[in-house]
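Example with several molecule types.
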Amino acid sequence: MNKRIVLLLAALIVSGPASAADVVVIVNTLATAPTREQLADIYLGRSRAFTPLDQSESRPIYVEFYQKATGRDLAQVKAAWSRIVFAGRGVAPREMASAAAMKAAVAADPKAIGYIDKADLDASVKVALTLN
Amino acid sequence: MRHDDAPPGLNAAMTSGPSPVPGEGTGSLRQRLAALATPSILIAVLAVLVLALIWGMTLNLIAVEHAAAQEAAMVSTRKQTETYEAQLVRAVREIDQTLKLVGFVHASRPERNMLEALAARGLLPANMLFVVSIADREGHVVSSTRPSTTARTIDPEDFAHERQDDALWIGRPRKATGNREWQLQFGRRLAAADGSFDGVVVIEFDASYFVSVYEASRLGEHGMLGVLGTDGIMRVRRSGEVVSAADVVDYASVVPAESAESLTVAVTVNPWDGVKRYTGIQPLYEFPLAVIVGLSEDEQLAPTRQTTRTYLWRAAAGSVVLILVAAWLQRLSTQLALSRQRIADEQLAHAQRVEYLAYHDNLTGLPNRSLFSKLLGQSIHLAHRHDRQLAVMFLDLDRFKQVNDSLGHEAGDQLLKEVAARLRTCLRDSDTVARIGGDEFVALLPELDQQMYAATVAQKILSATARPFLLLGQEFRVTASIGISTYPQDGLDEQTLTKNADVAMYKAKEEGKNNFQFYSEKLNEHSLERLALESALRHALDRGEFQLHYQAKRDTRSGRISGMEALVRWQHPDLGTIAPMQFIPIAEETGLIVLIGHWVLATACRQNVAWHRGGLPSMTMAVNLTARQFFDEGLLPSLSSILAETGMDAHLLELEIHESLLMRNVDQTMKILTGLKRMGIRIAIDDFGIGYSSLSALRQFPLDTIKIDRSFIRDVANVADNKALTAAVIAMGHTLSLTVVAQGVETKEQADFLRQNECDEFQGFYLNKPVRADQMEALLREEVAAGRTEAEYLL
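Resulting structure tokens for the full complex:
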């Protein structure tokens, strides 16, 4: 619990006015964009239509994304993935070192799905959803 | 048995009622079986059986359900333990693989950003759940997949242990600063290229990871998942949403040695939280850990308990309904039984009443002849079997007919009732008294120890009867005559005994009444004669065996025939002529006298009229009346019809009645005499002088003639006293203006004496014997033709 509050505070401090900035969900340009419901399922491990990629937990966008995409707090998300991983039914989203790495991974894999700050968007990937 | 009891057959029927008497020895088993068959007991037994069935089935069902639920819980626990073990082994292996990988890479070419490189290639577990850190030889973290944890150090205690050992190290659960969640650390020793200790690699994660597969749908709110170290420290456990760790338990007691390597399932109270669970424990083969899966007994059996409650409620409701129905049936059955019983009682009562009426005398309530006959038969049988004596006692009231005649039948009935009541008080309970005819009673003394008892009873009865009765407001006395016969001396069968008692009773009557007589053989002969006479007498009138003789009465002075007395004679075809003194008492007793008397009167009157019409002078005709005739209600009407029928002049008819009759019932006598007088009939007192009549009473009665008793006349010539007395009687008769007649004159001396004393008429063998009608007629004609009296001639 403490950890989450710390993270939240950190996110607020780092992002500052940018906290209101849009998060975009990106997929491979060849891929069909998922709906919002599908997105939540994918990032809670309930759908295997896409391979979810993750940003570092220490970045502000991490908290914002999960809140907007799944409507859950991080503890709940973690619990969901814990169950899946422990039971061997899936693998938790892999953490990308940067937005660029995320874009590269998505561009390289038609099944990959990721999220970045709208500001970092370029043509290598396709915007599936914009979360705001 | 008392006389007012029901007959023996009925008594037997009454004592063996419908309900069996407990403790009755014979046939008690059958009675009990029969009692079982009565509806109420049958219903009760059935109800109990059905109740037992309901509850037996219910309890059995509950036991079965309970066993099934327990079995299901055990099976579920076993399966989930197996699944959980597989999941945990895989998860731990994955962690260990990562540790070994990092160790391998470190040993081959150690670099500072080794973890980042491995992570970039996806060779480390997801950052989201796991933090991989590397510490140097002193335990300081030098590299980590999560930079924020860099400051953390490895637990020094664990670290020290880790220096030498190359095995997988599993740390105790702990809470890192600023984190409320339990954390677990798994680690391995890092070796330098030369194999020397070069730090450790540690994977850290939330302890809850190991129990994340807890699902309430399978484990409930109070089930548990747990991972226990062989060191007795609980690495993590979860029950519902609550995750805890670090409990210290005695591993050996939780995981028994014999089951250390295999899965065991048992119901135990878990020492870490005190909850009773179906607990499955499986130690892991490769790691110093054991998985624990628990299902709360309370929770698992709750549905069964609910079902059990439902069953119990249903059974209870069923029982209540059953009991109500049984009670209702019981009530119906009881009512039915009661109404049946009532009907049976009524029928029995009716039958008893009918039987009672058939066997009892209506008037007195005493047994009647048929019941007595039955009882006597039984008593004889018993006396024979037990070699005992018994007595039969015949009793006849001596003056009953007079009561009936003078006071009426109602008074007679009342007298009989009273006599019956008195007889009862004279007898023991075992004795019986019955009424077998008008005024005839018979008593049976079945337990006769000695004849004295019979005599005592007879004497008691005589005394009791002799006490005055109060009838119609006036005191009245009767006496009884009793005859006694005893078994076996006087007879061996019912008929003989009763007949002989009857014979003895007649003897008592002859002995002057108001006494009792025992039967004897001699009596029997005498009595047989009497019985034969009685029987013959009943037919004598029809067969024309009676005839009248006439005895002339003569005037004392003229010697001429002045009248005659009609005397009845019985000419029996076998026995010859039977004297009136032999058969008149029998006729009187049997009542035949009324018929016979009527015949005598009618015949005498007819004869008298015939003679008169035949040219003979009119003469008085005297006819005797007995007491019974005199008091018979039909006397006056009968007389008037005879007079009318024969044309007889009433003044020529003289009725002779016995002196003793006058004093018996003065009022009644006066009434009858007055009636006779009114018709013009003359009245004579027969056998005057021996009946102790009071002179004053004599004066009241409307008499015409007195006939001096023959006992006076017999000695009148010799005994001075009799002379004086006879003279006085003649004088008294004249004073009362009565005609005085002397009876039984047999000698000339007697006749002379009477003439001297101015007796009016005389009668006797001296001049005339009683003769047949034709002889009498001849005599009369002779006298008329001679024109003189035989008396003159003779005198």
